[in-house]
Design brief:
Elements: E1 3-9, H1 16-26, H2 29-34, E2 35-43, H3 49-59, E3 64-69, H4 74-84, E4 89-92, H5 100-111, E5 117-121, E6 128-129, H6 133-150, E7 161-164, H7 165-174, H8 181-192, E8 197-201, E9 203-204, H9 214-232
Parallel strand pairs: 1-2, 1-4, 2-3, 5-8, 6-9
Antiparallel strand pairs: 4-7, 5-7
Helix pairs in contact: 1-3, 6-9, 8-9
């Protein structure tokens, strides 16, 4: 097994160097031995994020690889990172949530042949969600609406993920959405085609104010559901 980690980065100049360096130091020895690359995809930043990423590349030349997209799109950054990753398996992490425990647990499941697609669920009964109440409620409402309109039985689709790389690239080729919708679409496409979505609990504590406010997120929900339903219509329900 060779492992890739994909990290989208937008306006993260103040944090990314310290966060990535700390993450690499916290990885258990066995996990670090399997780590082939950390692919950081800088996308449309207006600060010094790209320069900070290049300093990480200089500091960890055998591990860190930096890509850049001109457009500030979270989904397109994830998609490019997946398509250019070289490992047999990968994890998609967040710049401010580089969870070494999730990566290690994912590797153990992959090695045991127990999963091809793993989601770190904030709604898992064993998860500890330290985000503000409004954000927790929005997650609950979004996943409830998603269940009603698509039938998806999982508890969460938005957040950290680990995927067999061949499957991840296949799903990217099938995806029709961009931006933040993409990461949920990847989950639904896998589920609709009969891939079991394995959920792991996580401990999440918000380290900064969310870049998109609740007021802006909520009106996006119905449009997001519409895009996802259009995507799923292309694939029959697997009994």
């Amino acid at each position: 097994m060779q492992y890739s980690i994909v990290i989208p980065a937008h306006n993260e100049a103040a944090n990314i160097e310290a966060f990535v360096a700390d993450f690499l130091e916290r990885l258990p020895t066995l996990t670090r031995k399997l780590l082939h690359e950390v692919v950081i995809v800088e996308n449309g930043s207006s600060d010094g994020t790209l320069e900070a990423c290049r300093r990480l590349d200089d500091r960890f030349p055998s591990i860190v690889r930096v890509l850049t997209n001109k457009r500030g799109s979270y989904g397109e950054a994830i998609k490019r990172g997946i398509l250019e990753s070289e490992g047999t398996h990968l994890s998609i992490l967040e710049c401010d949530f580089l969870d070494a425990e999730f990566v290690t647990a994912s590797i153990e499941l992959f090695q045991a042949g127990q999963a091809r697609f793993i989601v770190a669920s904030k709604r898992h009964p064993e998860s500890v969600d330290g985000r503000p109440l409004k954000r927790r409620i929005l997650t609950m409402v979004f996943n409830k609406i998603l269940s009603i309109f698509t039938g998806y039985p999982g508890s969460d689709t938005h957040g950290l993920k680990s995927i067999d790389t061949t499957l991840a690239k296949q799903l990217c080729a099938q995806a029709i959405t961009t931006d933040e919708v993409l990461q949920t679409e990847l989950v639904l496409l896998a589920w609709r085609q009969g891939i079991k979505i394995h959920e792991l609990p996580i401990r999440i504590h918000e380290m900064r104010v969310a870049p998109v406010s609740i007021r802006r997120r909520f009106p996006m929900v119905l449009d997001t559901i519409g895009q996802l339903r259009r995507s799923l219509r292309r694939f029959p329900v697997v009994a």
